[in-house]
Amino acid sequence: MSLPRVAAVNEVRDSCRNCRLRELCLPDSLSLAEVSKLEEIVQRRKPIARGDYLFQSGHPFNAIYAVRTGSIKTSSLLANGDEHITGFHFPGEVIGLEAITSDRHACAAIAMETSSVCEIPFHALEVLGEKAPKLQQQLVRIMSRELVTEQGTAQLLTRRSAEQRLAAILLNFSERFVRRGLSGNRFRLPMSRLDLGNYLGLVPETMSRTFRRLEEQGLLDIAGKEINIADKSALTELAYGTAPEATPNACRRSG
Fold first, then answer.
1. Is the sign of the CA dihedral 253, 115, 19, 9 positive or negative?
2. Do 57 and 132 have their domain in common?
3. Which residue, 100, 129, 153, sits at the end of a domain?
């Protein structure tokens, strides 16, 4: 029974050191010795099937999670029982930080496709952070990024047309795919249009019309969930009224 356990641990250690996503995740800026210590507490969970929960709202907080593969959405329930999607999270992004202050998760995390995560027990991370100041600094940077994300979401949904909201979130996805070394112009949306509309505060009919209008304007080429940004400058002008390089940081989303 011990052999599979050893193999699993070794797999985690190898993946942390050589992971192509390490610059987006907690190991960023850490020394090899510090990464080795972090690897000792990281647990690689079994893949999560589409539609399954990583954690649910109200569950006790024990760990934060770094997305390795796939994609995960976070959502909460409104007073009327409707689902409100609060975020989409891609490989290299960290989720679960919202529960640090309350010790319980304020939202649910659900796989949008078969996904895998690294589970990082938070108490062990705190103990390790006392010995590795760079690790604490990196965690603070990630938490700061989450705060910027929340501010960006508020801006995204305030006094903007449906076309501006959709343009802005597609540009945000584009930037996040580029950070992972993928194409920023051609990508696949892992979420349904229903979920995307929920996040943007748009009903399904409006979402369909908005996608169609952006395609008719020559800004996008769309084939199902496959998106090709045909005119990035025009899409950015629509979203922000600025050139691509001047896109406000507060409007950029991350995990």
1. positive
2. yes
3. 153
Average pLDDT, the chain: 84
Q: Which long-range contacts (CB under 8 A, 24 or more apart) does 222-229 make?
A: 225/188, 225/189, 225/190, 226/186, 226/187, 226/188, 227/170, 227/186, 227/187, 227/188, 227/189, 228/185, 228/186, 229/170, 229/171, 229/174, 229/184, 229/185, 229/186
- Given a cut of 50, whether residue 95 has pLDDT beyond it is yes
d(CA 18, CA 171): 29
Cα-only R_g, the chain: 19
Looking at 153, 187, 221, which one is the last position of a domain?
Answer: 153
- pTM of the entire predicted model: 0.83
Confidence of residue 242 (pLDDT cuts 50, 70, 90): low
Q: Which residue has the higher pLDDT, 139 or 152?
A: 139
CATH number, domain of 49, equals 2.60.120.10
* Residues 11 and 61 placed together within one structural domain of the fold: yes
Comparing CA positions, the residue from 108, 112, 130, 132 lying closest to residue 49 is: 112
Model pLDDT, residue 247:
43
